[in-house]
Amino acid sequence: MGLIVQKYGGTSVGNAERIRAVAERVVATQRAGNKVAVVVSAMSGETNKLVELARELGGETPPPREYDALVSTGEQKTIALLSMAIQGMGAKASSFNGAQMGFLTDKAHTKARIKSIDADRIHKTLDDGAIAVIAGFQGVDDEGNITTLGRGGSDTSAVAVAAALKADVCEIYTDVAGVFTADPNMVPSAKKLSRISFEEMLELASLGAKVLQLRSVKFAMKYGIPLHVRSSFSDEEGTWVTREEDVMEKLVVSGVTYNRNEAKIRVRGVEDHPGVAATLFTALSEAGFVVDMIVQNMGLDGATDITFTVPRDDYEEALKLSKSVSSKMGAKAVEGDESITKVSIVGLGMKDHAGVASRMFEVLAADGINIQMITTSEIKVSVVIGEKYTELAVRSLHAAFVDDGAEAPVAES
Amino acid sequence: MGLIVQKYGGTSVGNAERIRAVAERVVATQRAGNKVAVVVSAMSGETNKLVELARELGGETPPPREYDALVSTGEQKTIALLSMAIQGMGAKASSFNGAQMGFLTDKAHTKARIKSIDADRIHKTLDDGAIAVIAGFQGVDDEGNITTLGRGGSDTSAVAVAAALKADVCEIYTDVAGVFTADPNMVPSAKKLSRISFEEMLELASLGAKVLQLRSVKFAMKYGIPLHVRSSFSDEEGTWVTREEDVMEKLVVSGVTYNRNEAKIRVRGVEDHPGVAATLFTALSEAGFVVDMIVQNMGLDGATDITFTVPRDDYEEALKLSKSVSSKMGAKAVEGDESITKVSIVGLGMKDHAGVASRMFEVLAADGINIQMITTSEIKVSVVIGEKYTELAVRSLHAAFVDDGAEAPVAES
After folding, report:
1. B328 in any annotated domain
2. In chain B, which stretches have pLDDT less than 70?
3. Residues 6+ apart with CB under 8 A from A4
4. Rounded to a whole number, what is the distance in angstroms from the first to the last CA of chain A?
5. B53 with A99: Cβ contact below 8 A
6. I need a labelling partner for A287 at 20 to 30 A (CA). Which of A215, A349, B7, B329 fits?
7. Smallest CA–CA separation between A305 and chain B, in Å?
8. Is pLDDT of A313 > 80?
9. Domain enclosing residue B99, as ranges
10. In chain A, which residues have their Cβ closer than 8 Å to the Cβ of B131?
11. What are A83-109's pLDDT values in tens digits?
12. pLDDT tens-digit series, residues B328-387
């Protein structure tokens, strides 16, 4: 029928029994008449053990070439074991590590970028009636040095393999049933989406939804590979991530998401002349801090306030740097706040509906939640609020936009 | 000064602390002015864990291609960790797995034979002032499939690398101080040999001495690579294994060794006509049994007795087969005995001394030990005796030939 790439994460291959369950699913997919290539991660816990050893012998920053050679053994273990299990069920299988499948990357060890994949060898395997079992996360540079794509890179590997093979679909097996309108642990009424666009998924992934790696979604969008996110513990359909034109029902809000991993820094009373913001953000960027939201607003006294967010892990260092830069800029004060959350609503339908943002602000206001920062794009609105309001905000927004979505007083544009 | 290949076994790299100790020795060797290539095994215990997983998922005989892909990760782990440790000490290092160093073998998975090694890449690394850290035990076939040389293959890898690099010496680091005249656990007066010939070492290795893999000694002899067997826990000189002409002191007996892993089968009263032995041994060989010693002797009644030894693990099956073949051959009886030991004396000096074998029989007779079988070669005499006499025989022979070697009444030829 088709050519299917399946990807299984570390939990799905976490022990012998689970590997056997994956083998069963893979073989069943082939016996249903498909060509199947499987991309797998290291068994859960394995990578952490290897990283621990690397720390012991290589210190805080182990030599990257050797680090990649070390951690790539995790996936090689899984592909060999899964191939054995598949063969034990009477099907043909052949394992491929990064070098064997010609998964060529640049030389950026531990965060390599994909250059090309030699699809011929895998096609030959598939044409031969065998299942190709492929190590995720790893590649080789043009000198044969082992590289890795960085944590979570197996999703990206799978999509890249699907693109190289011109697969009909890339199935991402995970421990949840698909993409939900909100975190089901926080919002009991959260619904599994049956279809969502690449654009929406990109926003959700970058706003804190953990079901898919951001980079893999970008890759799938670029090459137009439909993703099917589904549970490795059941047979039910999950969520399809596809081109916008293939998404029938364009929800105004397809997801409410939150991210607690940011912190806010505010630089007050900066003189308002050109280049002020640049001085600050160039310094932060050169120090390696990734700034997310930025809001700049004029105070009554003609001076400017600049507020921005950084990952919470970088908060202390970024605050220190901001203070030192700001004093040179003649700023009045620098304040920080770690107790914030970014809450976002995402939906393709926003393009066609006005008033979504203001309705969002009303919902939050009705709960007495103060909005500290706002950013918007064509298909999302994000606000920063006090961290203690996270659950309340997510539940109220979900109730207003998803549960009662049809009735919500949002004006058609 | 020179080009040195060092090989460290699983115990020597068994944990982070030991890997660090190996790194120190390697770096010290380089700083003394040498080019250094290091060949390492998997950390002790690692291979057993992988084999256990293979059994769980691949059954009793896992698919060999995948088995090799799996177990080869053990050595890849060690080379990455050792390279990290070396770099942490301020020296340059680069790791090479089988594919990366062009360690080409045939396609016989789990027991591959070496075809060639691409010495250029390693030479480049060494010329660049770096230490080459090489995975033992593994290679690739001409299609890039991972192969392994079989258990203990790391010794062979090291010698092959030394031959390819035209190294001055291949140092084999182990948990004993060198090659001893007997098992020191059994014979407290056993002495470490300072020099021994390849021929003697071959006999000792095939007769039960476990310090070196038989295959690696053959390889070293073929390419004339001097081996230096020494302890990874001390700095003292170990035992040099070299060409006969470089062994100054040709001992009559350089080693007394024993092997408890054989069992004896005796086929009695076979009619003595051509092809009788062939029928039996062809059947055994086709069933995969490796027969070691064979003795055939005429009985008084004109019929022949054939006695031979097989590995003890194969005893039950080989006995069954022998019975079935023998009944067709019209043999009178087939008997077996598992409680035997093969005790051997080995020495280059035997070539120039007559009477060594008879002196050996006298020593054993004086202890009341009955000799069941005898085989000899130019530089060794082996006897099969009852297993319970093992210690007594080894100690008495060591006392007669080694401790009192100079005074032994052995006639010069």
Report:
1. no
2. 1, 151-152, 299-300, 405-413
3. A29, A34, A35, A36, A37, A167, A168, A169, A171
4. 42
5. no
6. A215
7. 46
8. yes
9. 3-175
10. none
11. 999 999 999 999 999 999 999 999 999
12. 888 889 999 999 999 999 998 888 887 899 999 999 999 999 999 998 888 999 999 999
| Rounded Cα–Cα distance for residues B292 and B183 (Å) | 22
CA–CA gap between residue A36 and residue A23 (Å, rounded): 11
Q: What are phi and psi of B401, to 5 degrees?
A: -100, -30
Identity of the residue in A53, A62, A66 whose CB atom sits nearest the CB atom of B16: A53
Q: Which has the higher per-residue pLDDT, B47 or A38? A: A38
Chain-chain contact of A83 with B63 (C-beta, under 8 angstroms): yes
Instruction: Note the pLDDT of residue A406.
Output: 47
Tell which residue, B187, B214, B188, has the closest CA to residue B200. B214
Do B38 and B133 contact (CB within 8 A), yes or no? yes
CA–CA separation, A182 vs B3, rounded Å? Answer: 63
**Residues of chain B contacting A95 with CB distance shorter than 8 Å:** 65-66, 69
Whether residue B87 and residue A63 make contact (CB cut-off 8 A), yes or no, is yes
pTM strictly above 0.95: no
Spatial distance between the Cα atoms of B309 and B301, rounded to a whole number of angstroms: 24
Is A98 contained in some domain? yes
Q: What pLDDT is stored for residue B303 in this prediction?
A: 78
pLDDT tens digits along A176-208: 899 999 999 999 999 999 999 999 999 998 887
- B81: chain A residues, CB-CB within 8 Å: 53-54, 57-58, 66, 70
What residue in A sits closest to B50 (Cα-Cα)? A77
- The answer to whether position B12 is within a domain reads yes
Residues B41-71 as b or e (16 or more Cβ within 10 Å = b) = bbbbebbeebbebbebbbeeebbbbbbbbbb
Q: Chain B: residue nearest A62 by CA?
A: B84
Ramachandran region of residue B90, left (φ > 0), alpha (ψ -120 to 50) or beta? left
pLDDT of amino acid A408:
45
The partner residue sitting opposite B66, judged by closest CB among A70, A95, A99, is A95
Handedness of CA B402, B404, B405, B411 (dihedral sign): negative
Q: How many domains are contained in chain B?
A: 1
Query: Which helix H or strand E contains B309, and what residues bound it?
Result: strand B304-311
Domain assignment present for residue B252? The answer is no
CB-based contact A69 B57, cutoff 8 Å: no
d(CA B322, CA B301): 22
pLDDT over 50 at A271, yes or no: yes
Residues belonging to chain B: 413
Selected for mutation to probe chain A from B27, B70, B110 (highest A CB count within 10 Å) is B70
Instruction: Look at A62 and B84 and tell me if their CB atoms are within 8 Å.
Output: yes
- CATH number of the domain bearing residue B53: 3.40.1160.10
